[in-house]
Amino acid sequence: MTQPIAFKWLNFDRLSDEEIQNLIIPKHSPEENEDDNLYCFICGQAVTKIHYRTSIQGSREHTFANPAGIVFRIGCFRNAFGCAQASDFTDSFTWFPGYSWRYALCADCQTHLGWVYRSSEGSQFYGLILDRLISPREKKEFPGKN
Ligand SMILES: [Zn+2]
Fold first, then answer.
1. Residue 19 covered by a domain
2. What's the gap in Å between 114 CA and the centre of ligand 1?
């Protein structure tokens, strides 16, 4: 069995977009190098792009625990075109002061992939659980859809 190079092993915050792409995408064909999508780990739907990473409160990556004690490693993205949003915005237990949140689900299979955050001024970003996103290389071995 081939060991996939998981996105979660990369230094998400420190590396440039190009460095991450070089690490996770084989250089066999030009098309693969242009694919900077990240995909749902359940169904393979494209969710966001590496170059949508954005720094929020000083970092593009944050580790938080929810009130139940479950730890999430999340990456911040300006956009996540493959996510649907669910429930109403709330600021209870928010991890980002000044932002309220609601759930971000895979638009295709409805898996919980993270949260969408909105400030009182209306700016918005996605905090996506890095373990629930897969790279183009991993997706190549994915049994699901293309
Ligand atoms: Zn999905």
1. yes
2. 12
Q: How far is the CA of 92 from the centre of ligand 1 (A)?
A: 26
Residue labelled with tokens 């739907």: 45
The type of residue at 134 is I
Residues 69, 84 contacting (CB under 8 angstroms)? no
Domain assignment present for 34: no
Q: In 10 A of CB 136, how many CB atoms? A: 22
Per-residue pLDDT of the chain (146 residues; tens, 9 = 90+): 444 444 555 667 777 877 776 666 555 444 444 578 999 999 999 999 999 999 999 999 999 998 899 999 999 999 999 999 999 999 998 999 999 999 999 999 999 999 999 998 989 999 999 999 998 878 877 665 54
Q: How far is the CA of 68 from the centre of ligand 1 (A)?
A: 24
Give the number of domains in the chain: 1
